[in-house]
Design brief:
With 216 residues, the protein is α+β, with helices and mostly antiparallel strands. It contains 2 helices and 9 strands. The model has no long low-confidence stretch (mean pLDDT 81).
Length: 216
């Protein structure tokens, strides 16, 4: 084989290697950009989840069954994320008390919703020195509880929720802001989304003043 042919062959090989490397680097950049965009979209969707949850509470301020509205939205969100290969899990607690009259007994009505993919094995609610205990709360289920308080002045009560589930053992202290002459709805949420790309979690409490008598 002539030297000229050898040089040509070597040149072709070098050019081919350069083209392959350049194509590979471009593909890596494309994949990295795609991953970055997907992460940004997931963060945006998660932020939107929180804002929509708050909006559901706010637009329900003059409706009955506000807890049911929250539960329906959470269930819809879980199915929506699942359709995009994203796992949505968490727990929600809603608390409502009717118009508070000074010196009169008032009911605090509570709904707890389990959005974990496992059962909650034990749950304890403590309010105003009174406790209620529950066991075997199935996933995708909700249950209610009720407490009574009596006050002659505005006061911030503490509602303590302790619960255990596989890989979860938590204690939450939720403020219940009571005002004479006001009806309020308090929502506590601890939610998380997980995908092959990322994991995001948010824990927050939102309070809405209601303008009519409600039931949870």
């Amino acid at each position: 084989m002539a030297k000229g042919q050898i040089f040509i062959i070597i040149a072709v090989i070098v050019i081919t290697v350069i083209v392959v490397l350049k194509t590979s680097l471009n593909l890596t950049n494309v994949l990295e950009s795609k991953r970055f965009l997907e992460l940004g979209l997931e963060r945006l969707e998660f932020q939107n989840l929180r804002s929509e949850l708050v909006k559901v509470m706010q637009v329900s301020y003059n409706q009955t069954n506000i807890s049911e509205n929250v539960n329906n939205f959470m269930s819809f969100a879980k199915e929506s994320f699942l359709s995009r290969a994203t796992l949505f899990t968490g727990i929600a607690l809603t608390a409502m008390f009717p118009n508070v009259t000074s010196g009169a007994n008032t009911s605090l009505n509570i709904t707890v919703m389990n959005y974990f993919d496992d059962d909650i094995s034990s749950l304890n609610l403590t309010f105003n020195n009174t406790q209620q205990n529950f066991t075997n709360m199935a996933r995708s289920s909700a249950f209610t509880a009720s407490f009574v308080f009596n006050t002659t002045a505005n006061i911030n009560y503490s509602l303590v929720m302790r619960y255990s589930a596989p890989n979860v053992n938590s204690t939450e202290n939720i403020t219940i802001p009571v005002e004479i002459g006001k009806t309020k709805f308090v929502g506590f949420f601890d939610v998380k989304i997980s995908s092959i790309r990322s994991e995001q979690r948010d824990k927050f409490t939102e309070t809405v003043v209601l303008n009519v008598t409600h039931r949870v």
